[in-house]
């Protein structure tokens, strides 16, 4: 069994820099041997939930600019799986969730950057799934619920995003995490650990500094998808927590 996880994927520089988070990701990857990986990425937004469906090697997408040339030379040659994509689609459809399949799109940096640091050489098929940031948290959770039980099949579900992701608020001179970002994550941790779902679903009104931490929810909502896909009988575990440039959070959780 491999529990679903949420990971903070931060800057694309994570692919070439060694940090506390990349050390965590590498260590995590050494501990698990998934049969397949299903990753919900904040960098693929669609109105209808869309699943990558291919048996080929994915193109590596460089959906960023202004970074060192070294980043644009990295390839992450993971393969997909039409069979598993079809199984996922069936699960969603059974729960009344509309779904599309996509045979063309490559892996964006919300997928290949954390996967590169977990598994420097791809070890299994990867199925990438889009997010709709405009759905409420309870609906994001329901999307995750449709995948419950895949952990028993050694399929690793990853929500890839960030709990605090406000690029306008980055503090490039910071040597310690910004207090407002820490307060938001503290609130999240307290409520995640006791699975206080109604409060978590209402984070925008109840969490301190919610508007600063989540100016737009595309990076935040993969947390709810990963949460929903886990077994509610298990207590969630905080598996990593660190920050860069003041407020960029790498909080990671196992469900």
From TrEMBL:
Keyword flag Transferase: no
Family recorded in the similarity comment: Belongs to the DODA-type extradiol aromatic ring-opening dioxygenase family.
Cofactor: Zn(2+)
PANTHER family per the UniProt record, alphabetical: 4,5-DOPA DIOXYGENASE EXTRADIOL-LIKE PROTEIN
Gene3D superfamilies xref list: LigB-like (3.40.830.10)
Protein origin, superkingdom: Bacteria
Zinc among keywords: yes
CDD domains tied to this protein: 45_DOPA_Dioxygenase (cd07363)
SUPFAM superfamilies for the chain: LigB-like
Stated name of the protein: Dioxygenase
Domain Extradiol ring-cleavage dioxygenase class III enzyme subunit B: 31-249
GO molecular function annotations of the record: ferrous iron binding; oxidoreductase activity, acting on single donors with incorporation of molecular oxygen, incorporation of two atoms of oxygen; zinc ion binding
Keywords from the UniProt entry: Dioxygenase, Metal-binding, Oxidoreductase, Zinc
